[in-house]
Amino acid sequence: MAGILPLGGGSSALEQYAALLQSNRAAAGGANGAESAGGADSLTAALAAATGASRPTSTGSTGFAGTLATSLENVQALQSRSSDLAIQAATGDLDDIHDYTIAAAEARSATEVTVALRNKALEAFSEIMRMQF
Hints:
Distance between the termini: 12 Å
Helix content: over 70%
Shape: elongated
Structural class: mainly alpha
Number of helices: 4
Radius of gyration: 18 Å
Order of helices and strands: HHHH
């Protein structure tokens, strides 16, 4: 496939995936392009809602890759906060255990959604690779 660099070729896999999505959208054009853009918008909205990221109002400079990177950073922040509160609870420095419980539930939910989206993306990629041209 043209345009895809091998891993370690100077761009991340997310950047390569975003570039592939954009080139496919440009090639599809017309009604199919609008339909696929709507699917990507709903995917980014679901990821943003699950991870607490704010949804961009347009697909300008942030795009799908930017939204995905921001969402993954938010998942990491939720996990870090949960870990910090767990340490505080274990050492007795935490005043309200409910803070840890809520943080742990948020981190678990965000991680589950992220893993589900990753699995769906890998499923879609595998399906595309099985297609015969």
